[in-house]
Amino acid sequence: MKTDKPLINASTDTCNTIDNEVETGDKSSPIKVLSDGKLLGNLDESGSMKCDYHNVKTWVRRLSSETIVGDDANNLYPFYVDTAYSVRRLRKDIINAKVRLHVENLIIICNINDVSTVFLMREAVEWILRNFPSITVYVQDIFEKSTQFAANDLCKDSHCNQNRIRFWSRDFVQNHDSFFDLMITLGGDGTVLFASSMFSKDVPPIVPFSLGSLGFLTNFEFQKFQITLRNILTDKVRINLRMRLQCKLYRRNKPEIDTITGRKVCFIDFVSEHHVLNEVTIDRGPAPCLSLLELYGHGSLMTKVQGDGLIVATPTGSTAYSLSAGGSLISPSVNAIAVTPICPHTLSFRPIILPDSMELKVRVDMNSRGTSWVNFDGKDRVELKQGDYVVITASPYAVPTVESSPSEFFESISKNLNWNDREEQMPFAHILSPKNQKKYNIDSSKYENDNISPFSESPFSESPFTSSDAEDEEKNSVAGTEMVVERTRQAYFAV
């Protein structure tokens, strides 16, 4: 639903002022609708409102919740729909966009449990130092004095300064937000998950090289790392913004007596925050009894889970634990939250896909016979007692991965899962006797020749579409054009 009716024409200063009012909680003054200007959604037209994310968010808030004065105050729905349309169009452009990466600081993360991976990393570092003099490479600090990695020898062989190889630690990464321009991982999906867990906010674009046995995230072959890195560092690439989940863990304390009112008061303490790329799992752990979990959506009780547990996964994690528990496959470009039960004690509890705007809360029921355990991407396992809960929302900080091909997701599930892999139906001509096979070939050729002009006996033979000139022109056309003509004729008779 598009409309050309003007709504707002605001400058950036006006947007900043209104944004500050919303952030400070001042909602007393209404927005003035001017007599001229462009729609909020028409961001690409001249004279339209061009503000940053916070300003667009402010206008959406005002449209949906505040009083807007002017001639259009009684009919804001068209503008609301137009804004939603523009946001969808902008997201489509972002997904299809290609960007050029300006890399100065490059971090490499490898599987340190495999010695061969260290030598492969050494080859990659040497090649980067030789071919890209402006790039500084950061490797893990455990290799600073490693005789296997031998950083000093690498600098000598590459004829470069020793400070071009530097070393990172977990604290260094967390204290230097938005410092790295590119990340290379050498390993399997676990290495990518580890790399994601180190960055609580902005994650640099990841180039995941496959050195594991089964990988849905690692779509680059290390044998071709020189060609791959040269193309990424010199050309434009497409980036997949993989959604993460922001999980906040809360602990319920024992009730205390309020000295003022004399009533029992239960305090809830915030414990920790986690950003997961695959899934957060709440299960019964070693308890012999079923888990009894409460699932809330936007503060309302959705259902109670009686079973082994619950999986809340991202689209990236839909090919992991959630898939094994019967969940659906979701393309990484879709922003959604997958909720999959683990062995539910009911036949009607099916997996469900929820919008990424929903805030979920999983709470251990007070009547649960046992405790539950929560883990984030398979790590940081914490026990949840009765009344403890986890709040799960879509993280504002995605994990960008460099796309190997436009169809990498389908190639990945086809290669790793043999998705929809079966033999095609075959004709039975190969089991005929030689005499019948010969007759079959003759009849087949005759049938094909008869179908060259399927409209020769049509009651519409007098139509200009079946004139002799048209038939001669059709016979001289190429196969692709014949398909177009055939489809046109079908449309004609359908009318």
TrEMBL record:
Gene3D superfamilies per UniProt: Probable inorganic polyphosphate/atp-NAD kinase, domain 1, Probable inorganic polyphosphate/atp-NAD kinase, domain 2
Gene Ontology biological-process entries: NAD+ metabolic process; NADP+ biosynthetic process
GO molecular function: NAD+ kinase activity
Keyword terms: Kinase, NAD, NADP, Transferase
Pfam family, one: NAD_kinase
Compositional bias annotation for Low complexity: 453-468
Region (Disordered): 446-482
Protein family membership: Belongs to the NAD kinase family.
Protein name: Yef1p
Native source organism of the sequence: Saccharomyces mikatae IFO 1815
Organism lineage: Eukaryota, Fungi, Dikarya, Ascomycota, Saccharomycotina
